[in-house]
Write a structure and sequence with these properties.
330 residues, alpha/beta, Rossmann fold, 5-stranded parallel sheet, 13 helices, 9% strand
Length: 330
């Protein structure tokens, strides 16, 4: 068996930061494949859940092929119960320790020590690491590509994937204007799901995520981006890059060229007609939209009122500026 590490491109971001669009743009490259969030925690009702190819995920030939290749690796696999999350099989003790976001190395040493006291964790972690590595290689084999894109976003997953000796990981940190992220938290069905209401919730016709308000969006935007920074601080600088969602939308070709050069694939093979390319993505409802127009979503300028913005700036204004944004409309 080859000892070559499998290439994985990890998209780290706050929720609703454009990771699905970015993953599909990257997955349209002939040397890369994106199937969305590899952690695949909850796909909803499997009897109605659609793959981005518009086939029921339980009947999709691509996913059947991945299941077959996982079986060849000794893994029992179904995309509707993937078992890739770091919390799979966790006890209440483990769940409590995995709940806090990634922070400074000294804090993480304490977390790791406390987790090491759990026999379940010591047994489960190697199993989960092998399962994730087998999953990435099975996807790469099924798609006949070199690299796989994981848009799982969260830092705690990335922390442990970086310890996986079978994976060669590069990270793309996607940053979006926090006001746009907060608006999506306020009304996910309108701003973070398929445009066609009948396709929302993966095909069930109802968005699974409920609105949680500007205040939740503001705090989550800060927390997720700071968590990403904490993980990136443990990595070699040449292994990660920061990209702004606004640049992906407004300067698409130049930004993709920069990303593909970072990944190490030929930028001239990029495809802007990314929805024309066959995809088998699970996750955000945007994957089910037919339109491949790449347009900046800045509806927060009209939809957030003065009270919303005041609250957002009170919570996130300082950090918002450190990531390159101002309180003036851009």
């Amino acid at each position: 068996m080859s000892s070559k590490k499998q290439q994985l491109i990890y998209l780290a971001a706050a929720s609703h930061s454009g990771s699905t669009m970015t993953a599909m743009l990257l997955g349209a490259h002939p040397d890369l494949c994106s199937v969305g969030e590899l952690k695949a925690v909850n796909l909803g009702a499997k009897e109605s859940y659609l793959c981005s190819c518009k086939t029921l995920v339980s009947e999709c030939a691509f996913w059947q092929g991945v299941s077959d290749k996982m079986a060849q690796r000794g893994q029992d696999f179904s995309i509707s119960a993937a078992g890739m999350d770091i919390r799979s099989g966790a006890t209440p003790y483990i769940l409590k320790l995995l709940k806090p976001l990634v922070r400074a190395p000294s804090v993480e040493l304490i977390r790791d020590f406390l987790l090491s006291l759990s026999p379940t964790w010591r047994k489960q972690l190697p199993i989960l690491q092998k399962r994730n590595a087998d999953y990435v290689s099975a996807i790469a084999e099924q798609a006949a590509v070199e690299g796989v894109v994981d848009s799982s976003k969260i830092g705690i997953r990335l922390k442990y994937l970086l310890k996986n000796k079978a994976l060669d990981i590069k990270v793309i940190w996607i940053v979006r204007d926090g006001r746009g992220v907060s608006l999506a938290y306020k009304n996910p069905s309108e701003y973070a799901d398929a445009k066609d209401p009948t396709l929302r919730g993966g095909g069930a016709g109802k968005t699974q995520e409920q609105g949680r308000g500007i205040e939740v969006g503001a705090y989550e935007w800060i927390r997720c981006n700071q968590e990403t920074e904490a993980v990136l601080a443990t990595m070699d600088k040449e292994k990660w890059m920061q990209v702004h969602y606004e640049d992906i939308c407004n300067n698409t070709e130049q930004t993709l060229d920069r990303i593909f050069e970072f990944i190490g694939v030929d930028p001239t093979k990029k495809r802007l007609d990314f929805k024309t390319v066959e995809h088998h993505v699970v996750g955000n409802g945007m994957r089910l939209d037919d339109s491949e127009v790449i347009k900046l979503d800045d509806r927060w300028k009209e939809q957030l009122n003065e009270a919303d913005l005041k609250y957002f700036y009170g919570v996130a204004g300082e950090y918002h500026r450190t990531l390159g944004y101002t309180e003036e409309e851009k």
